[in-house]
Design a protein that fits this description.
By secondary structure, the protein is mostly beta strands. The protein is 12% helix and 43% strand.
Length: 206
């Protein structure tokens, strides 16, 4: 049986004028749609390289995440191993579209979906971590999450009025039904076998 939560995220850079963005996005939807359900967002010129257009794609594979992940990254130009993330730079072969020059690929799989997503607003419940940090009842923004280890999703949240993120288990957070105005990419969080967060990485930068 396939895990209930399967996601592959692609961040893509294309060398093209802004007026070509819609056509490129449509082609990305067509090609990635062969792998499963896909959503592609157009994010406009990349701030570091204005002649590049940025796209982000969220793919729900029809089959297993690992198989889809490997199939997408089987050509030349890829670096990285495992499912911790792979990066592609334009080499001899095209990837998805002739205009693409750079791509990153990340996969996430879990037996059940998270209750919260990046940019959700939550309330921090009464727990030891909240009491220690004087955060009981404080509203916070979800900035990232990690897969269950072993059966509880872990979240990084940014409490209102604070500059540092804090980590909480799913049951230590309550929903508000609201989201922040500006949505962004979630951070990737690594969790050890003991349940401790062992690493945090921002969305890839170039």
């Amino acid at each position: 049986m396939l895990p209930a939560y399967r996601r592959i995220h692609l961040r893509l850079m294309a060398e093209a004028p802004p007026e070509n963005s819609g056509a490129i996005a449509a082609e990305l939807v067509r090609v990635l749609g062969e792998y499963g359900e896909v959503t592609v967002t157009e994010d406009g010129p990349y701030w570091k390289i204005p002649e590049h257009l940025e796209f982000n794609a969220e793919l729900i594979p029809r089959g297993g995440t690992a198989e889809c992940f490997d199939d997408l990254s089987k050509g030349s130009g890829w670096t990285g191993t495992g499912d911790d993330g792979r990066v592609w730079n334009r080499a001899e072969e095209d990837f998805l579209h002739p205009a693409l020059r750079w791509a990153s690929l990340d996969a996430l799989e879990a037996p059940f979906p998270p209750r919260f997503n990046a940019d959700d607003l939550v309330i921090i419940r009464d727990c030891q971590t909240a009491r220690d940090g004087k955060l009981v009842g404080v509203e916070a923004t979800v900035v990232g999450f990690s897969p269950p280890s072993p059966d509880v999703w872990e979240y990084l949240v940014l409490p209102v009025g604070r500059e540092l993120v804090e980590d909480f288990a799913e049951h230590e957070l309550a929903p508000t039904g609201r989201r922040t105005e500006a949505a962004g990419e979630p951070m990737r969080i690594s969790v050890g076998r003991d349940g401790e967060i062992t690493g945090v990485s921002q969305p890839p930068t170039r």
